[in-house]
């Protein structure tokens, strides 16, 4: 290191969210030096504005409803949910938006941390503008990993950006429930936050431009979530386009196909965009605001020293997939630094193959939606020989014990030539914990003939696996 303002490391990581943390951790474990650059909170979106606070908001409602679905236990459920205590519990998971604990972990892992705004200025060079206005130049011997993630997208609807809409950040960190919440977008975030704030006392209206909620999932998932939201009093409007927005005093007014709708806050949950503006990608001939184009080892095409890891590449915008990509990219960086061969072949130690073939996800609504791999529609689009089989989860003994009147559906997409699973979806209460078995089966391409020997314990909800296989066999 030449001076306080010029430092050299093996790897420079831009962004200290969970993806950046994992890149730095794995390369340090591999014997390289690494520095993280972060302008906000170490730990990133998941820790403070996404996964953890959103699930903390949802968990209390889920626990109450699970108890209420069991005769005997239901009699013990009295009174209303303590909203203040739920919000306090949410705050405990974010550590009141204080990253001291995460910083301590970084230091303990042997990773350096520089606070400030990072921008690429040339090959393997990053300049950090610190809070004091000074600059630190970081040079990477081997690689720069861009882990700057994504941010909420606000569509070009007249006046929408001007009404100071909630993004997922505000939706998960709000200090009290709004009396009336308008939600634009019926994907993961829109559905989860509609459930959460409805249960905490808000009157929620959800606008979805298309004819289905959760449009990328199996149809059974969107149908079940729609029915549940409406049963709880959420006003769900399908095929509804928001055309304009304005504020009148303390109200938000949305103009839709059906007229004007008024609320106290509006959450925009229509997708994400790459956080690549202002970070210097243009100095490398790349387009600002666009996702980084990477190969399966997460190396930016045409720039062998640059890696785009996590949301910033647009492959799979999920925390666990960002961390997975981080592990794969970091192992590739270490191997290349050692002069070892790196393979981008499917399922190699360096390739993020699961992005394409086996991405697991859970929507923490009630019912939950847990899925991995391809849907039937996706298999059809890809021209794969397949058959879709489904089974009502409530028909297995474990489900009937879990909740009286349990309702749910399991859907499997089977490759009819190779007789392996292409994808699995579970819809129902508490199905998230069924998902990893499905993920292992899809990743491992376990033959159906071998799955017959994976005997589910009785009486568990996992017995639905046997019923799916029996349905497949006919």
Descriptors:
474 residues, FAD/NAD(P)-binding domain, Enolase-like, domain 1, 3 domains, 15 helices, NAD(P)H dehydrogenase (quinone) activity, Pyr_nuc-diS_OxRdtase, NAD, FAD/NAD-binding_dom, FAD
Would you mind describing this structure in some detail?
- This protein is an alpha/beta fold and 474 residues long.
- It folds into three domains: 5-48 and 94-151 and 273-354, 3-Layer(bba) Sandwich (FAD/NAD(P)-binding domain), CATH 3.50.50; 168-270, FAD/NAD(P)-binding domain, CATH 3.50.50.60; 367-473, Enolase-like, domain 1, CATH 3.30.390.30.
- 30% of the residues lie in helices and 25% in strands.
- The chain is built from 15 helices and 21 strands.
- It has helices at 18-29, 44-48, 51-68, 83-93, 100-108, 168-173, 188-199, 219-231, 319-337, 354-357, 376-381, 397-402, 435-443, 448-451, 464-473, and strands at 6-14, 34-38, 112-115, 117-122, 125-129, 135-146, 150-152, 180-184, 203-207, 235-237, 242-248, 251-256, 259-263, 265-268, 272-274, 306-308, 360-363, 368-373, 386-392, 409-415, 420-428.
- The strands form five sheets. Strands 1, 2, 3, 4, 5, 6 and 16 form a seven-stranded mixed sheet that branches.
- Helix 1 runs parallel beside helix 9 (319-337) and helix 3 packs across helix 4 (83-93).
- Disulfide bonds join 46-51.
- It comes from Geodermatophilus normandii.
- This is Dihydrolipoamide dehydrogenase.
């Amino acid at each position: 290191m030449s001076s306080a303002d010029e430092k050299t490391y093996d790897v420079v990581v831009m962004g200290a969210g969970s993806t950046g943390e994992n890149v730095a951790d794995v390369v340090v474990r591999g014997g390289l030096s690494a520095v993280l650059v972060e302008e906000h909170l170490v730990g990133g979106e998941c820790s403070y504005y996404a996964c953890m606070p959103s699930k903390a908001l949802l968990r209390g409602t889920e626990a109450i409803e699970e108890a209420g679905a069991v005769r005997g236990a239901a009699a013990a459920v009295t009174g209303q949910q303590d909203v203040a205590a739920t919000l306090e519990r949410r705050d405990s998971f974010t550590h009141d938006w204080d990253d001291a604990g995460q910083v301590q972990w970084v230091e303990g892992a042997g990773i350096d941390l520089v606070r400030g705004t990072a921008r690429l200025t040339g090959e393997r060079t990053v300049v950090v503008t610190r809070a004091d206005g000074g600059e630190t130049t970081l040079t990477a011997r081997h690689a720069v990993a861009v882990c700057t993630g994504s941010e909420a997208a606000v569509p070009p609807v007249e006046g929408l950006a001007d009404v100071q809409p909630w993004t997922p950040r505000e939706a998960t960190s709000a200090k009290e429930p709004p009396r009336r919440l308008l939600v634009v977008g019926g994907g993961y975030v829109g559905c989860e936050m509609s459930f959460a704030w409805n249960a905490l006392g808000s009157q929620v209206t959800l606008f979805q431009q298309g004819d289905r909620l959760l449009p990328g999932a199996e149809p059974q998932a969107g149908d079940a979530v729609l029915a549940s939201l409406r049963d709880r009093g959420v006003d769900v409007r399908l095929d509804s386009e928001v055309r304009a927005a304005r504020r009148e005093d303390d109200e938000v007014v949305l103009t839709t196909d059906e007229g004007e709708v008024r609320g106290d806050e509006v959450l925009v949950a229509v997708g994400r965009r790459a956080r690549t503006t202002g970070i210097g990608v243009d100095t490398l001939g790349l387009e600002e605001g666009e996702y980084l184009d990477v190969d399966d080892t997460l190396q930016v095409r045409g720039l062998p020293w640059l890696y785009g890891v996590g949301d910033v590449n647009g492959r799979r915008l999920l925390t666990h997939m960002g961390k997975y990509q981080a592990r794969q990219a970091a192992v590739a960086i270490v191997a290349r630094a050692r002069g070892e061969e790196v393979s981008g072949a499917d399922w190699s130690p360096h390739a993020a193959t699961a992005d394409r073939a086996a991405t697991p996800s859970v929507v923490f609504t009630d019912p939950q939606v847990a899925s991995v791999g391809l849907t039937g529609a996706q298999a059809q689009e890809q021209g794969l020989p397949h058959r879709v089989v489904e089974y009502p989860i409530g028909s297995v003994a474990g489900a009937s014990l879990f909740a009286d009147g349990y309702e749910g559906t399991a859907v499997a997409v089977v490759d009819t030539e190779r007789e392996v699973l292409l994808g699995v979806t579970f819809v129902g209460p508490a199905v998230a914990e069924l998902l990893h078995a499905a993920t292992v089966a899809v990743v491992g391409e376990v033959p159906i003939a071998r799955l017959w020997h994976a005997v589910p314990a009785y009486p568990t909800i996992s017995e639905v696996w046997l019923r799916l296989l029996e349905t497949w066999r006919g």
